[in-house]
Amino acid sequence: MIHSIQLPEEIEKRLENLSAQTGRTKKFYVMQAIEQQLDDLEDIYIAEKRLEDIRAGRSKTYTLEEVERDLGLAD
Q1: Measured between alpha carbons, how far is 24 from 20 in angstroms, rounded to an integer?
Q2: pLDDT tens digits, residue range 23-59?
Q3: For 58-67, b where at least 16 C-beta lie within 10 A, e where not — what string?
């Protein structure tokens, strides 16, 4: 578990200003930023893995028209 981190002075000032303006804690915004970044990194990892599987022939792709036809949604 991370208990503390050193932030650059400019980021610390921005957090302090945001906290003062909104009444939320700096910790709230740090946690929110970390969570968002982790979500993005996880999405990137999944997308890269899927692309690797497609290129290696371990996964198949379908066109929108194929999906619509198979689901009975085609015109």
Answers
A1: 7
A2: 999 999 999 999 999 999 999 999 999 999 999 999 9
A3: eeeeeeeeee
